[in-house]
């Protein structure tokens, strides 16, 4: 398959690919990249193979299409054959919030820190969401938080 990198965090080691032929975004882990992980930026064209993982589609054997090194690289075989995903069930949210300030106040996060917390929570608790859905939710919730003064600009 071919697509473009939607988002890739080389520090955390994962991201998402938007397939050129449409469909849901595909999760990609740094261990499945055939080129230097720092070269994968939003908008980069890639070729990849897909398998159905525990949490949805997962890319492997991912390489940059426009990479300077055009020499062929071996493509690893998937660990298991592609199988249909099990029926979806409601996710069990794993994030809890506790307030321990004596004055009943909470810290106000910066906009970037708030967005990163949201993205991490959505990836962890709702892995079936696409990258586009995560970005839309993050944008909407950030605007709501700014409107109520929950985050700083």
Structure description:
The protein is an alpha/beta fold. The protein folds into two domains: 86 residues, Nucleic acid-binding proteins (OB fold (Dihydrolipoamide Acetyltransferase, E2P), Beta Barrel), CATH 2.40.50; 66 residues, no CATH class. Helix content is 21%, strand content 26%. Strands 1-2-3-5-4 form a five-stranded mixed barrel. Helix 1 crosses helix 2. About 5% of the residues have low confidence.
Helix content: 10-25%
Number of domains: 2
Topology-level CATH name of the largest domain: OB fold (Dihydrolipoamide Acetyltransferase, E2P)
Per CATH, the class of the largest domain reads Mainly Beta
Give the DSSP E fraction (strand runs of 2 or more residues). Answer: 25-35%
Shape: elongated
The averaged pLDDT comes out at 78
**Whole-Å distance between the termini?**
40 Å
User: How many beta-strand segments?
Assistant: 7
Largest sheet: 5 strands, mixed, barrel
* Helix-strand string: EEEEEEHHE
Q: Give the name of the CATH superfamily of the largest domain.
A: Nucleic acid-binding proteins
The chain-level structural class is: alpha/beta
User: What Rg is obtained from the alpha carbons, in whole angstroms?
Assistant: 18 Å
Enumerate how many helices there are, as a single number.
2
Per CATH, which architecture of the largest domain? Beta Barrel
Please give the order of strands in the largest beta sheet: 1-2-3-5-4
Query: Which stretches are low in confidence, meaning pLDDT under 50 for 5 or more residues running?
Result: 69-76
């Amino acid at each position: 398959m071919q697509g473009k990198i939607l988002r890739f965090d080389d520090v955390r080691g994962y991201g998402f690919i938007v397939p050129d032929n449409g469909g849901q975004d595909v999760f990609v882990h740094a261990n499945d990249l055939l080129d230097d992980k720092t070269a994968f930026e939003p908008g980069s064209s890639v070729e990849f193979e897909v398998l159905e993982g525990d949490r949805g589609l997962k890319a492997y054997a991912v390489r940059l299409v426009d990479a300077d090194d055009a020499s062929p690289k071996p493509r690893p075989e998937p660990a298991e054959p592609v199988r249909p995903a099990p029926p979806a069930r409601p996710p069990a949210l794993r994030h809890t919030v506790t307030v321990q300030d004596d004055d009943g106040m909470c810290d106000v996060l910066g906009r970037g820190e708030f967005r990163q917390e949201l993205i991490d929570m959505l990836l962890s608790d709702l892995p079936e969401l696409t990258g586009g859905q995560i970005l839309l939710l993050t944008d909407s919730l950030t605007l709501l938080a700014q409107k109520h003064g929950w985050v700083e600009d």
